[in-house]
Amino acid sequence: MKQLTVILLMILCISCGQKVEKEDLEFLSGYWEISVVEFPSGDKKRYEINTTVDYIDVSGMEGYRKKVQPLPDGSFITSDDAENFSLSSRDDAYIMLYNNEMSEWEEEIEQLTETLLVLKNNEQIRYIYKRYHPVILD
Predict the structure, then answer these.
(1) What tens digit of pLDDT does each residue of 73-90 get?
(2) Cα 126 to the chain's mean position, in Å?
(3) Is the pLDDT of residue 2 over 50?
(4) How far is 62 from 59, CA to CA, in rounded Å?
C-alpha cells in the first residue's frame, strides 16, 4: 500500500510540472520582481520588498534584460546597462543564453505564465519571479 501511495505521489508531482511552450515566450517581455530564491540545499531566501525589478524585452528569439528602479509616480530610473541574451530550445526546454565580454552563462525557463517566471541556472539555483505591478502614489 505504501509503495502504491509513493508511486501515485510521484506521478502527481511529474504531471504538475508545466512545460514551457514556444507560445508562452510572449509572456517573457515585461517587468519581473524576484520573490524567492531556492538553493539546491533546499534553503530559500524570500524577498518581501525590492528596490529594483528586472525588465525583459524579447523580439523573436533575442532580447535583453536590465535592472530598473521603480519610482512612486510609476516611472523608472534606468541605465544603459543591459544583458543581451538569445533564446534556444534544448531538451524540450527553453534556455536564455547570455554572452558578454567577461563571461557566458545560461538560465533554463522552468515555468512561464502571464504572472510567474521561474529560472534555473547552471548551479541549480532557482529564481522565482512574479509579474511586477507598480503601486502609484498620488
Answers:
(1) 889 999 889 999 999 999
(2) 8
(3) no
(4) 6
Q: Does the structure show a pLDDT above 50 at 36?
A: yes
CB 109 within 8 A of CB 20: yes
Burial 13-36 (b: 16+ CB within 10 A, else e): eeeeeeebeeebbebbebbbbbee
Grid cell 523608472 in the structure block, residue: 76
